[in-house]
Design brief:
Helix content is 29%, strand content 25%. It is α/β, with parallel strands linked by helices and 191 residues long. The chain has one domain (2-189): NagB/RpiA/CoA transferase-like (Rossmann fold, 3-Layer(aba) Sandwich). A hairpin with a 2-residue loop joins strand 2 and strand 3 (87-93).
């Protein structure tokens, strides 16, 4: 059974990676605007002192404006630092100048950045190729976010474009559901 689920996840990852490359620039811009508006009006975002997010690349839902706003609001902003072997830390940034090349050419704070312990994080924006209406995600397959989220006490918001928000994605026992999913069209609260 688990082998079937893993094979289905691999198939879907390939399908959704290809779909991301086909997105039109107009749709990306419109979608990013709506996602920004919906995330930044969440009470959990507004009240958070410490934010964890990712630095979007390629056609991923945009996080740069969210990071910029959070810094302007005086929030502590953290981004993932990939350590290898499935381990990821939350590195503090004070400006975009603190972001450089990370693992797999994904922009990240320097490996020697100050680390924020997960228990100090209030609000986290989580990426994925796709999410479902139960709050589960289909990530890139490294397991970094599932390990990072295991036992997390902070509010988790998955952001995705509406066309990648599905009824259901394959899941395994270690997969961790999120608090809400945000698209350009809706905020789906799950917890």
């Amino acid at each position: 059974m688990d082998a079937d689920i893993r094979a289905e996840k691999r198939r879907l990852r390939k399908e959704y990676r290809a779909a991301y490359t086909q997105l039109k620039p107009e749709y990306i811009a419109e979608s990013d605007r709506g996602i920004f508006e919906n995330v930044t009006k969440l009470p959990e975002f507004l009240s958070a002192e410490v934010i964890f997010t990712y630095y979007s690349i390629d056609n991923e839902p945009g996080t740069h404006k969210i990071i910029e706003l959070a810094l302007e609001m005086g929030k502590i902003v953290t981004l993932p630092i990939i350590r290898g072997n499935g381990i990821m830390d939350a590195g503090i940034i004070r400006s975009f100048a603190d972001i450089g090349d990370g693992a797999w050419n994904i922009p990240a704070p320097a490996v020697d950045s100050e680390i924020m312990p997960p228990e100090k994080i209030d609000f986290a924006i989580i990426p994925a190729l796709t999410f479902d209406r139960s709050g589960f995600r289909l990530g890139q397959g490294g397991g970094y976010y599932d390990r990072f989220l295991k036992g997390a006490g902070f509010f988790t918001a998955g952001i995705t474009r509406s066309i990648f928000f599905l009824e259901s994605v394959p899941r395994e026992e270690h997969d961790v559901p999120l608090s809400c999913i945000v698209t350009e069209n809706e905020i789906a609260r799950l917890k």
